[in-house]
From TrEMBL:
Domain of life: Bacteria
UniProt family annotation: Belongs to the cyclic nucleotide phosphodiesterase class-III family.
Keywords: cAMP, Hydrolase, Iron, Metal-binding, Nucleotide-binding
Free-text cofactor note: Binds 2 Fe(2+) ions per subunit.
CDD domains reported for this sequence: MPP_GpdQ (cd07402)
Organism: Haemophilus influenzae
The protein's name: 3',5'-cyclic adenosine monophosphate phosphodiesterase CpdA
InterPro entries in alphabetical order: Calcineurin-like_PHP (IPR004843), cAMP_phosphodiest_CpdA (IPR046379), CNP_phosphodiesterase-III (IPR050884), GpdQ/CpdA-like (IPR026575), Metallo-depent_PP-like (IPR029052)
UniProt-annotated binding residues for AMP: H23, D63, N93, H94, H204
Cofactor annotation: Fe(2+)
Length: 274
């Protein structure tokens, strides 16, 4: 895969931070379903920094900006600078890729979609966006890139990263916005025993599960949360969060979802969609 980032490290554990679905606006005071997304994202980043954990890389897994604004993407970059770590990004269904290419091209942002992480791991970042619609699909080009990357690095354990969800959430309204061709992804992955896990955002809720033998992780948004197991649109009162991941040299993964503790962001529970 072109555009490869090499993180050279001899240590046995690579530490990743995942943040997802900030939904920033042009206007810093704008709200999404009753939550100021700028304030909630800032609080998430503040509490991450207070823990003083030393991450090696940061993954931003889509829906960074809600309204395609220059200001939203510019502010996202500025807010990530204090971490002083490379930030790798993929688009979500709300993102506008021409703006991402324009504004997410300066440190700490990095456009690489193939990450060689230490001596034992790699991450492959896939674009599942179908512009203008909420659901996702991996193009043949993306599937081919994934296959090519796996073939070229058979000795490396692999983390696959995308925006849209593979596993049903048991919420009919949300599952219609899933990855439409997960069966094709499964076909590409099946020959490669080194694939260990799949990571995504999009569903604004925590998932720790399994799909076709792979560990599957989904992560809370940094703003509003969707309530699991609801057939109709439903918001949750759980707080914004993030995910920390440890990739170990034996191929094992340790991970934890954390949520903010020092503030409270409650959505308008009467909203029936967005």
């Amino acid at each position: 895969m072109k555009n490869t980032f090499v993180y050279q490290a001899e240590k046995p554990v690579i530490k990743l931070l995942q943040i997802t679905d900030p939904h920033l606006f042009k206007d810093e005071s704008a709200e999404l379903l009753g939550v100021n997304t700028q304030a909630s994202f800032a609080q998430v980043l503040k509490e991450i920094q207070q823990e003083n954990n030393q991450f090696d890389v940061i993954l931003a897994t889509g829906d960074l900006v809600q309204d395609s604004s220059d200001e939203g993407y510019t502010r996202f970059v500025e807010m990530m600078k204090p971490f002083n770590k490379p930030v790798f990004w993929i688009p979500g269904n709300h993102d506008f890729q021409p703006k991402m290419a324009e504004f997410l091209n300066q440190p700490p942002m990095n456009a690489a979609k193939h990450l060689l992480l230490g001596k034992h791991w790699q991450a492959v970042l896939l674009d599942s966006q179908v512009y203008g619609v909420p659901h996702g699909q991996l193009s043949q080009h993306q599937l081919d890139l994934l296959k090519e990357t796996l073939e070229k690095n058979p000795e490396r354990y692999t983390l696959v990263v995308l925006h849209h969800h593979l596993l049903p959430t048991n919420s009919a309204w949300l599952d219609q916005h899933n990855l439409r061709n997960s069966h094709e992804l499964a076909e590409v992955l099946s020959p490669f025993t080194n694939v260990k896990a799949i990571l995504y955002g999009h569903i604004h809720q925590e998932v720790n599960s399994e799909w076709n033998g792979y560990q599957v992780m989904a992560t809370p948004a940094t703003c509003i949360q969707f309530k699991p197991d609801c057939q109709y649109f439903s918001l949750d009162t759980l707080q914004p969060g993030w995910r920390e991941i440890e990739l170990h040299s034996d191929g094992s993964i340790r991970t934890q979802v954390k949520r903010i503790q020092q503030a409270e962001f409650l959505p308008n529970m009467q909203e029936d969609g967005y």
